[in-house]
Specification:
alpha/beta, TIM Barrel, two-stranded antiparallel ribbon, 9 helices, 14 strands, globular
C-alpha cells in the first residue's frame, strides 16, 4: 500500500486537504451468487446434500480456537464451497486502539482457511477494557474518519489482504456528525483502498429510522467498491414518540421492501455475491435455501 499524500480535489475547502491515499487493494473474490450463513444445525445436512449455493459465510470470532467440532465441519465444507469470514469483534470505530491479540487470532484463522473474502463492521464494541455485545454507531466527522481509516489500514496491513467494511444499522445519530453516511464511507474506501460490504437491510432500516430516502443513500454510496451484499430481516417497534422503529434482528425473512431495494441496487452494481443472513429464529436449511434462491433469481436476471 502506498503511503503517498495527495490533496482531495473534490473537497478543496474541506478538512482533508492533505490525507493519506492508498492504492486500491480491493477486488471481487466471492462468486457473484447467493450464499448463506453457515449454522451448526445445518452442518450434517449440507455435507449430505451439497446444496447448489454460491458460498457460505461464518463469523470469525466463532472459530478463534485451535480445534473442536466447528473447525471439523468448516474444514470439510470449505473443500466444496467458497468461504467468507465476517468479523464482529474488531471494533473498527473504537476510540481505543485495535486489540493486537485479536488481530493475530484473525490472521491465523485467515491463513488456515484462505477465505475468498473478509469483512467487518463500521462500528465499535469495546471501550476502556470492557466489551459490549453490540455493534455501536460512530459519529460521522473528520476525527472519526481519521481513526477508522487508520484502523482499516492496520487491519489490511496485518492481514496482508484487503477487507470489506459494512455500512451499519443505526437507531440514533450524533449531533457531532458533520458528514453524511455515504460521504463518510466513500472517503474510507478512497483513503484505504478497502471495499464495501453493502447491507441493503441496514440501509433500509437506518433510513426509515432517520426519515431519509434509502434509494438516495444507495445512489450516493461508492457502489463500484461493493464486494458483497447482505440481506436480512428486521422487526418493527415504536420509538418514544410513537414513530416506527425498525430493529435489525436477523431473525425473520427479508422484507418485501428490502427485496425491492436490493433489486434496484443490482441495477447499479451488477451481479454481486449476496448473503442471506439469519442469526436468530433459524429455520430449516430448506427454508433458507428457498430465500437464497429468490436472491439468485434476481442475480440471474443480470447475467
Amino acid at each position: 500500500m502506498s503511503n503517498g499524500r495527495v490533496p482531495l480535489a473534490a473537497r478543496p475547502d474541506g478538512p482533508w486537504r492533505d490525507v493519506a491515499i492508498h492504492a486500491p487493494q480491493w477486488a471481487p473474490a466471492l462468486p457473484a451468487r447467493a450464499g448463506l450463513g453457515l449454522k451448526p444445525q445445518h452442518f450434517e445436512e449440507i455435507l449430505a446434500t451439497r446444496p447448489d449455493i454460491g458460498f457460505f459465510e461464518v463469523h470469525a470470532e466463532n472459530y478463534m480456537v485451535a480445534g473442536g467440532p466447528f473447525h471439523h465441519y468448516l474444514g470439510r465444507i470449505r473443500e466444496h464451497y467458497a468461504l467468507s469470514l465476517h468479523g464482529v469483534g474488531l471494533s473498527i470505530g473504537s476510540e481505543q486502539g485495535l486489540d493486537p491479540a485479536h488481530l493475530t487470532r484473525l490472521a491465523e484463522l485467515l491463513a488456515r482457511y484462505q477465505p475468498a473474502s473478509f469483512s467487518e463492521h463500521l462500528a465499535w464494541s469495546g471501550h476502556g477494557g470492557a466489551f459490549f455485545n453490540d455493534l455501536l454507531p460512530v459519529p460521522y466527522n473528520a476525527q472519526t474518519l481519521d481513526r477508522v481509516c487508520n484502523h482499516v489500514d492496520q487491519v489490511q496491513s496485518r492481514l496482508q489482504r484487503s477487507m470489506l467494511l459494512e455500512n451499519p444499522s443505526t437507531y440514533v445519530e450524533f449531533v457531532s456528525s458533520t458528514l453524511g453516511e455515504a460521504e463518510f464511507l466513500s472517503e474510507v474506501v478512497r483513503r484505504t483502498g478497502c471495499g464495501l460490504l453493502l447491507d441493503v437491510n441496514n440501509a433500509w432500516l437506518s433510513c426509515v429510522n432517520h426519515d431519509r430516502d434509502p434509494y438516495a443513500l444507495i445512489a450516493a454510496l461508492p457502489l463500484a467498491a461493493v464486494g458483497e451484499i447482505h440481506l436480512a430481516g428486521f422487526a418493527v417497534d415504536t420509538d418514544a414518540a410513537g414513530a416506527p422503529l425498525l430493529i435489525d434482528t436477523h431473525g425473520a425473512p427479508v422484507h418485501e421492501q428490502v427485496w425491492a431495494l436490493y433489486a434496484h441496487t443490482l441495477q447499479a452494481t451488477g451481479p454481486v455475491a449476496t448473503l442471506l443472513e439469519r442469526d436468530n429464529n433459524i429455520p430449516g436449511l430448506d427454508v433458507l435455501l428457498q430465500e437464497a434462491q429468490h436472491a439468485q433469481s434476481l442475480l440471474d436476471l443480470l447475467q
